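Bit of a strange request maybe. I'm writing a small parser for structure token strings and I need a real example to test against, not something I typed by hand. Could someone generate the tokens for this chain?
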Amino acid sequence: MQSFIAGSILATVLLASTPTKHAVNTPAPSIVKAKKWISLFDGKTLKGWHTYGNRPVTPNVKVEDGAIFLNGSNHEGMLKGRSNDLISDNEYENFHFKIDWKISPKGNSGILFWVQEDSVKYKETYYTGPEMQVLDNDGHSDGKIIKHRAGNLYDLIAGTEGVVKPVGEWNTAEIISNKGKLDLILNGVTVVSTNYGDDNWKQMIAGSKFKKMEDFGTVFKGHFALQNHGNDVWFKNIMIQKL
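Reply from user aminoacidic:
Good idea to test on real output. This should exercise your parser:
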């Protein structure tokens, strides 16, 4: 009798301590796979990018030391009277975009998004695409203008101050556009957060320098553009997550 009881107890313990197949192999339903980052720049070539309007890439645009370099000192390489901005081959909607930038002393540039590529209808990328400002705040005159400083949603919203790094150092910029919500992040700090497409968005545009550009900020899917403003500027580590 004692042997039978002992055997029953041992069997019960073994069954209780043996993990089920379900517990071992089935992940919790709350686990969701992280979205993958897609590289938009290979660090060696301009593959995936072209000059706005599909014109030939000018000599002042090159890749060096793993970065896209827009050489502002090479004015002969720029096309007079035409946009020299570099834009992505593909269009994007609902995204998390990330890029590192470095500006030269007294330099000015920008990262544009939602750009519509119709160079006949729109002379410049900024006719349609809003801009996250790239700037030497201390050396360039735009640094004295509210809503024109580094990290600002250019001429629309002033951003959080004290985030940008000294001129010549690399900054990490992020743009998150997702179903009516827009966030601009600089060096890990959300500097601008707003909604787009609503009445407030339209009122901001109506009070800006873009008010006469009827299609500015109205289409929320488009190209990214790196502004070739005639100053030395570098971009690298360009990537995106589709949301």
